[in-house]
UniProtKB/TrEMBL annotation:
<dbReference type="InterPro" id="IPR003439">
    <property type="entry name" value="ABC_transporter-like_ATP-bd"/>
</dbReference>
<dbReference type="Pfam" id="PF00005">
    <property type="entry name" value="ABC_tran"/>
</dbReference>
<comment type="similarity">
    <text>Belongs to the ABC transporter superfamily.</text>
</comment>
<dbReference type="InterPro" id="IPR027417">
    <property type="entry name" value="P-loop_NTPase"/>
</dbReference>
<dbReference type="GO" id="GO:0005524">
    <property type="term" value="F:ATP binding"/>
</dbReference>
<keyword id="KW-0547">Nucleotide-binding</keyword>
<keyword id="KW-0813">Transport</keyword>
<feature type="domain" description="ABC transporter">
    <location>
        <begin position="7"/>
        <end position="224"/>
    </location>
</feature>
<dbReference type="InterPro" id="IPR003593">
    <property type="entry name" value="AAA+_ATPase"/>
</dbReference>
<dbReference type="GO" id="GO:0016887">
    <property type="term" value="F:ATP hydrolysis activity"/>
</dbReference>
<keyword id="KW-0067">ATP-binding</keyword>
<protein>
    <submittedName>
        <fullName>ABC transporter ATP-binding protein</fullName>
    </submittedName>
</protein>
């Protein structure tokens, strides 16, 4: 029997004007597995993630998520998507903790990170190393704190499909480790991940052998752009 598929990218390309910014790319990811998108600057990682998120359409080929074209899933299955593509839009007068409370209020007390009951706001902040800044406003955070805050808010959504672009950016070694642990926990809890990264340790973790003896994920390597 064929493996179930959460993300299916078939011969997808993206062209802007006359420039092909995403070369022909194909891969499948099953539920609870990862696709780790790697490649040099400008190779098309963000472009590919935007296609998988349904935020953009391929010029050629197809991109499906959760059994439908990705752009359709974006409209009809919003609750199943947790996206971090660029910065997190924030409310300047809500604290870090209040943002997570808002996420929980919007999406309901469902499984988060596969844990029942879902972790409370303070537990999620502790997991992300953000306890110290729980009562600060987004404008008061350092750039690394801002990045972990964005990741924590994204992972606090209950969606089955998590798409994150270079989550390691601006993080020091300790927070990179936490970032890795959070993404691994999401994966081992059964969520599907599509992650673009330049972090070798994150790539190794997300493609390592999981508790079921299978590789947790596949690598999708994009070639260097013509310069
Ligand atoms: N809207 C656009 N119009 C024209 N070119 C674009 C557009 N969006 C992206 N590009 C180009 O597409 C190429 C791939 O960009 P993309 O952001 O996907 O690369 P990346 O692999 O994520 O790079 P990095 O590692 O630097 O984040 C780049 O050369 C970029 O300039």
């Amino acid at each position: 029997m064929a493996e179930p598929v959460t993300v299916s990218v078939r011969a997808a390309t993206r062209t802007h004007g006359t420039v092909e910014v995403l070369e022909e790319t194909s891969f499948d990811v099953g539920p609870g597995r990862a696709a780790v998108v790697v490649g040099p600057n400008g190779s098309g990682k963000t472009t590919l993630l935007r296609l998988v998120a349904g935020a953009d359409l391929p010029t050629r080929g197809t991109v499906e998520t959760l059994g439908a074209p990705a752009a359709e899933t974006r409209q009809t299955r919003r609750d199943e998507l947790a996206l971090l593509l660029g910065g997190l839009p924030t409310y300047p007068d809500l604290t870090v903790a209040e943002h997570l409370t808002l996420v929980a209020a919007a999406w309901g007390p469902r499984h988060v990170l596969g844990r029942t009951p879902a972790p409370g706001v303070d537990e999620a902040l502790a997991d992300a190393g953000l306890t110290r800044v729980r009562d600060q406003y987004p404008g008061e955070l350092s750039s690394g704190e801002t990045q972990m805050f964005a990741l924590a808010c994204t992972l606090y959504r209950p969606g089955a499909l998590v798409i994150v672009d270079e989550p390691e950016q601006r993080l020091d070694a300790g927070w990179r480790r936490r970032c890795r642990d959070l993404l691994l926990a999401a994966l081992d809890a059964g969520r599907t991940l599509v992650v673009a990264t330049h972090d070798h340790d994150l790539r190794a973790a997300l493609t390592s052998v999981g508790p079921d003896g299978q590789a947790r994920g596949v690598e999708v390597a994009l070639a260097a752009p013509q310069r």
